[in-house]
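FAQ

Q: What does a record look like?
A: Structure on top, sequence underneath. For example:
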């Protein structure tokens, strides 16, 4: 089947892109590698930032200022301003699509405080905002006629003369490699915080697939060293204890009952403070006991249930032990207002590096970025696809991918790829996590190189080709290691501390390094790491203005 527009990814960014790209006269498909209802967007529980009145210029200005402040000098002011100015209209659109935001006594959309924000500008649906938005967008996408291609693992992109021509995917039902021709493609398949398996809120299949695909397509990654560690993951399971818990008045305390940090500081500050407490031998808890039970049950219902089911804790009476966990990746595929260097290929959401978050995301901005730039990516993809012809597909790439799949099936192995994925997560958290140094990063890099060489010898034990989970796990591991190397190399290259990137051997920021790091992979296994030339970028943009 051929499509005018293909969107990869079923979170809020991908869904919004598919909705915007669909018209009565074209064909739009949305590809997901698994369950349609499973995405990081659906667990983004706290809320979505917006000044609700588009005429409230001062409020929008401060939303821009707070967002820029959280970027630590690596912001794209144009993109941030566009997002904040578009926010009121997006909330209105989401309401029209069926999102039932919580309301105050006067019937207005309620807003709560979030870390790093100077005002209450975070709209919410209890503590399940992301899930509510995702479900509404799925319903809307179905209603407008978007085709859902679930259980398709995207492996590569095809292009001709630097213009996108289609998507190569593994059809999980029979493990066959298929190609979906398209006039334009949107990548919206999420980020790479799942690399920190065992220490992340992300599902285990969040392995940075979109970024690995981008590297193989010759695209550039940007800001890869910046991974946001959420301050409050459930200690036992890494379940996300939403920032809403602190926004509603929850305290962070140690086992002595001492509060040691402003709970609504920026996430890097809070996570760092908690990690220091844990390293000093303390346990850290979130304390909601002083809040009315009714408030907890109505404003934080998901947390109330999860704490009891996963930890046996009644948060109305007991404290809940927490720890920082990898949650969000600021880095991604280099883009300019969703456009990439390949014509007809657009990116949005967490897999894109648009300059919205810079070195450290402002809480409440991820869902907003997803819907705003998902909308823009859909508009751009639709516009590009119009009056275009389908390009020929280079089936040599398809054959190459099918041969790789057959190779994974055809031989035996004695190695445990799941254990390799777990050990990679442990290594990343220990050596390239909240604390980093030249020594620890070198250890991480050496181990990743070893694992990357080992993946060549991995094969499926189960030879059945129907929904073979081992095959997907091996392909995910290959992608994860490729992206993890990029993260570590960028972290080694940035010899300073900035935002979410903290180097124990370079504890201060360096004004001369207030620029992004770019990474490409001109040859498999060999990365080109360099600082962005802002002067050259400005010169090129001025040429286009002329």
């Amino acid at each position: 089947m051929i499509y005018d527009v293909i969107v990869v990814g079923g979170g809020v960014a991908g869904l919004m892109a598919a909705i915007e790209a669909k018209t009565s006269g074209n064909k739009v498909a949305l590809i997901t590698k698994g369950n349609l209802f499973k995405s990081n967007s659906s667990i983004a529980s706290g809320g979505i930032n917006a000044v609700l009145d588009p005429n409230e210029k001062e409020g929008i200005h401060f939303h821009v200022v707070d967002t820029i402040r959280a970027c630590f000098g690596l912001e794209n002011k144009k993109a941030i301003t566009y997002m904040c100015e578009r926010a009121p209209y997006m909330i209105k659109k989401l309401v029209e699509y069926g999102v039932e935001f919580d309301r105050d006594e006067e019937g207005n959309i309620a807003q709560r405080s979030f870390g790093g924000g100077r005002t209450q500008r975070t709209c919410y649906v209890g503590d399940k905002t992301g899930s509510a938005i995702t479900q509404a967008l799925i319903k809307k996408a179905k209603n407008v006629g978007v085709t859902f291609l679930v259980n398709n693992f995207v492996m590569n992109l095809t292009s001709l003369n630097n213009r996108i021509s289609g998507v190569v995917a593994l059809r999980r039902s029979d493990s066959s490699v298929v190609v979906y021709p398209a006039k334009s493609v949107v990548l919206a398949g999420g980020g790479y915080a799942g690399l920190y398996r065992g220490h992340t809120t992300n599902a285990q299949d969040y392995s940075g697939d979109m970024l690995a695909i981008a590297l193989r397509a010759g695209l550039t990654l940007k800001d890869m060293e910046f991974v946001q560690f959420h301050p409050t993951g459930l200690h036992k399971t890494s379940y996300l204890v939403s920032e809403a818990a602190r926004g509603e008045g929850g305290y962070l305390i140690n086992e002595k009952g001492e509060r040691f940090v402003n709970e609504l500081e920026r996430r890097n500050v809070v996570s760092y403070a908690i990690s220091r407490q844990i390293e000093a031998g303390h346990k850290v808890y979130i304390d909601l006991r002083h809040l009315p039970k009714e408030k907890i049950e109505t404003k934080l219902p998901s947390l109330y249930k999860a704490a009891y089911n996963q930890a046996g804790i009644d948060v109305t009476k007991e404290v809940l032990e927490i720890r920082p966990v990898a949650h969000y990746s600021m880095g991604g595929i280099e883009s300019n207002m969703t456009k990439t260097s390949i014509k007809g290929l657009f990116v949005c959401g967490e897999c894109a590096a648009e300059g919205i978050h810079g070195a450290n995301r402002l809480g409440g901005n991820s869902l907003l970025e997803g819907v705003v730039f998902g909308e823009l990516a859909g508009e751009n993809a639709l516009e590009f696809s119009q009056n275009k012809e389908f390009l020929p597909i280079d089936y040599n790439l398809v054959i190459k991918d099918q041969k790789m799949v057959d190779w994974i099936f055809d031989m035996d192995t004695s190695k445990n790829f799941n254990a390799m994925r777990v050990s990679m997560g442990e290594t990343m958290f220990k050596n390239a996590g909240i604390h980093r140094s030249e020594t620890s990063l070198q250890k991480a890099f050496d181990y990743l190189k070893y694992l990357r060489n080992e993946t060549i010898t991995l094969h499926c034990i189960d030879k059945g080709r129907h929904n073979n989970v081992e095959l997907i796990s091996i392909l995910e591991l290959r992608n994860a290691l490729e992206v993890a190397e990029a993260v570590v190399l960028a972290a080694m290259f940035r010899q300073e501390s900035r935002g979410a990137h903290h180097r124990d051997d370079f504890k201060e920021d360096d004004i001369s390094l207030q620029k992004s790091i770019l990474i490409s992979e001109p040859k498999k296994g060999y990365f080109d790491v360099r600082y962005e030339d802002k002067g050259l970028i400005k010169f090129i943009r001025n040429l286009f203005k002329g």
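Q: Is there anything notable about this one?
A: The chain has 16 helices and 19 strands.
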